[in-house]
Every structure is written in C-alpha cells, then in structure tokens.
Amino acid sequence: MDNQLPQYSALLVHIVSGVGFAMTTWIGSLLLGRIGRRTGAKDVPYECGMIPEAGSQPRFSVKFYLVAMLFILFDIEIVFLYPWSVIYREYLQQFGAHILVVLATFTAILFAGYLYAIRKGALDWSK
Questions:
Q1: DSSP of 102-124, one letter per residue?
Q2: Is residue 34 part of a domain?
Q3: CA-CA 20 to 30 A from 76: which of 4, 22, 83, 125?
C-alpha cells in the first residue's frame, strides 16, 4: 500500500490544480464584477446595434421535433449500413448467409418503425 501513493501523486496534483484554478477564477470574477457599476444599458443584451424586441420566441410544433427524431433514427441506420455494405463481400466469405439474415432483421425492425410512424400520422404535415 505504501508504494501506491507516489503513483497517484500526479493525479492528486492535477485534481488540486484544476479545482484551485476553477476557484481562483470564480472568486476573481466575483470580486472584479462588483467593482464595475451596473447600468440599465449594460444589462440589455447586445443585438448587433438594434434595440432588442421584448417578444418571446415563436413556439415550434411537436411535429417538428418528431420529424427531427425520425430523421436522426433513419440517418443512424444509414451510418450502420454503409460500413456493412463496404465490407460485405469479405464477411460473406467468413460468415456465410448469417450476416444477410442479421441485416434483413435490422432493416425489418426499422421498416416496422417507419410504418408505425406513418400510421400514427407523424409525417402528415396537413394536420
């Protein structure tokens, strides 16, 4: 046990210096921030020289996020299929038709999810 302390001393120095740096910059920011005077003009966000409008952001439809999630899902499918298709011939020699069954199962599951999304109206923008 006594031999392990020198092994972890570099890690301990790294952690202490990281926490020390974070605390020093935080305290320095607090102290220097109190020195300056705050005015109303300083508290307004800068909008490229324009006076910021007080209106809120427009609300996005839930359909927007649903389509975005579906896009990510099917985009990830392509990310998995592309490398598989590049080395398909090499794997076919090693593993036979088993990899084709695995790919067909993977694609069938994703296609079932796509059909479910269509049936639920996730891609119907007229609603």
A1: HHHHHHHHHHHHHHHHHHTTTT-
A2: yes
A3: 125
